[in-house]
Amino acid sequence: MSARARTVVQLSVTAALLSLAVATPASADQGGGTAVPLRVATYNIHAGTGSDGVFDLDRQAAVLRALDADVIGLQEVDVHWGARSQGLDTAEELGRRLGMRVSFAPIYSLDPVEAGGPRREYGVAVLSRFPVRSATNHEITRLSTQDRNPAPAPAPGFGEVTLKVRGVPVQVFVTHLDYRSDPAVRVAQVADTRRIMARERAELPGARQVLLGDFNAEPSAPELRPLWAEVRDAGTGTGGTYPAAAPVKRIDYVAVGKGVRVRGASVPEEAVASDHRPVVADVSRLRRTGRS
Fold first, then answer.
1. Which whole number is the average pLDDT over 112-125?
2. Boundaries of domain holding 176
3. Measured CA distances, 61 to 5, 40, 72, 175, 200 (Å)
4. What does the pLDDT look like over 57-89, one tens digit per residue?
5. Facing residues of 162 across strands?
6. For residue 219, is the peptide bond before it cis, meaning its omega torsion is within 30 degrees of 0?
7. Which of 9, 29, 182, 256 is the most buried (most CB within 10 A)?
8. For the chain, first and last CA: distance in Å?
């Protein structure tokens, strides 16, 4: 299997979750549109391991369940990667525990250790209460951690899913930007992100966009400045997200594009299940009523 997008859509979604996804009423919103509510979240799951060094997907599933989000972006997701995550497909396992659809976008897709085994993959994922209409694994500039002498080059792992939420098309992107102190790769990644989101927006006029991820940079970082010209940081004013036990910086984000309003956001005080804290935001997409 190649490193292109792999979407695992779980058919055993409970009737309760489906009714929740459809039953939330739309409400009138100032500005000439109808507000279509959505709760979104992002969480770097550290391959299933908590800040205490213990691998525990049940614990992470409990954290995610408590967020009660319709759409969740995950980073540092192992799929049959190895012993650190017990060889599990952590994206599918969390989706099964939560009763949500899963779309996984690998950054790395390596040959199995033993012939006939599953590929060893690592990347980002989207969990969704809504059906995934399409999924794409975009390439952005990366400096590989799997090469001995890496050079910046296009590589996959910038995931996108298109959902239709009560008649409104929503493009959800999930990303994990470079962690190094030198911001050069992040500068390139931000440029790639802006280009890809603009292209996808042009291909689906009227779609609303949400960007979820671990940016490995604080909001005021110069390399993120061009991004804030395109999307709004929903978590402005919330607490730090890393390290989870005692956060000193905010590097995890829910960001929204034009036509999406932020109702509120928070960083739950979860200090153990991962080395990051999650971010959750209530937003609304405006249905057009002549203009948006």
1. 94
2. 6-20+29-288
3. 23, 16, 12, 20, 31
4. 999 999 999 999 999 999 999 999 999 999 999
5. 134, 171
6. no
7. 256
8. 42
